[in-house]
Write a structure and sequence with these properties.
By secondary structure, this protein is of the alpha+beta class. The chain contains 5 helices and 7 strands, in the order αβααααββββββ. 32% of the residues lie in helices and 22% in strands. The strands form 2 sheets. Strands 1-2-3-6-7 form a 5-stranded antiparallel beta sheet. Helix 3 (64-70) packs antiparallel against helix 4 (75-95). The longest helix has 21 residues, at 75-95.
Length: 193
Amino acid sequence: MLKKMVKASVVLIIASLGVIAYPSDNDNGKAAASYSQKKASQIDNGAAEAAEKFINKYLASEDFDKWLKNAPVTSRFRNELKERSHVLSISELLLGERIKMEDLSAKDKKLLKKYGGVEYDPVLGLIILDLRKEESEFKVKSFDSKTGIIVLKDKWEEEFLTGTGNKGHQGGQEITLKMLKVKGKWLVDGIIW
């Protein structure tokens, strides 16, 4: 499925990926870590394990539905991911001219409007283009226990020379997740783009 999504990603799908933001009251809309940010060595192990499991199992998965069934996510976010995956499928059909906008149900049209289209991947969006499935592995970089914001960084990074001889860089992507403790267990409650 991942290969299919990347193949379909050659064309930008309908519009840019919707943003999930969980700003604090004092950060002017930015989900930046506050004074309570902790380094990876000081992070709650439950939060770190849930966040790393969420993304690394996703990268290793060949079946989105099977992965999502076992993913450590809140029910709200699980529903959102299902919707995003569905929107990606609809977008691919529209771009391939296998269906027309007027053929869509009112519910599907509403989802397309809600998410503005989904680019490339329902979980990672454009980031998927800068990952190497076989080599990418995300580890916790930082965690803000006050806001539940956790930053993961891909261990794979590479510098290379471009065709013009300039230095290029690939990998080392960061993903920011919103974590929520539910009944004593840490779950992913959103991705912050």
